[in-house]
Design a protein that fits this description.
It is built from five helices and five strands, in the order E-E-E-H-E-H-E-H-H-H. By secondary structure, the protein is an alpha/beta fold. Helix 1 packs parallel to helix 2, helix 3 packs across helix 5 and helix 4 crosses helix 5. The chain starts with a strand and ends in an 11-residue tail after the last helix.
Length: 164
């Protein structure tokens, strides 16, 4: 199985490609899409879209996994995150890639064994579990953990993407 995990953000969208299953999963590639913060939100969204299309084209994932939406205290941040999530979901649907969503506690529990783990714990565990040669950034680690959550669950997608 080839899984694309995405940690959406209008500032730094983490992404990770995992291949295999929970016994033999390996990180194929991972990184961060970082649009210039001076850009207006629509241009940041375009940057994220174009980057994800390149990743999907290069790696041909069988499923895209994303953290499910959650409530934010800051309304402006919540709206921006919702728009980034929309772009991520659109890329998957247009490419015909099924989508799975997990809550933040589910993702942290899969990665660390504790649903309220902090970022450093997620970074440490993803580095160890996947035998990474370099420590991922927080955004990369969150994307790795998101993909890892699905790999360890080995369940059917929540939503099926489809081309128009």
């Amino acid at each position: 199985m080839i899984v694309l995990g995405v940690d959406p953000s209008s500032v730094a969208t983490g992404w990770a490609i995992l291949a295999g299953d929970s016994r033999r999963a390996r990180a194929v590639d991972f990184g961060v899409l970082r649009p210039a913060t001076r850009l207006e939100l629509p241009k940041r969204l375009a940057h994220i879209h174009d980057g994800l299309v390149e990743i999907v084209t290069a790696h041909r994932p069988e499923i895209l996994v994303i953290e499910s939406a959650f409530l934010h205290r800051n309304v402006k941040t919540a709206f921006a995150l919702g728009q980034v999530r929309g772009v991520v979901l659109l890329v998957a649907v247009r490419a015909g890639i099924p989508i799975a969503e997990y809550t933040a506690p589910e993702i942290k529990r899969a990665a660390v064994g504790y649903g309220a783990a902090d970022k450093k714990q997620v970074v440490t565990m993803m580095t160890r579990i996947l035998g990474l040669t370099r420590e991922p950034s927080d955004d990369e680690a969150d994307a790795l953990a998101t993909a890892w959550c699905h790999v360890t669950r080995n369940v059917r997608p929540v939503t099926t993407g489809g081309k128009r």
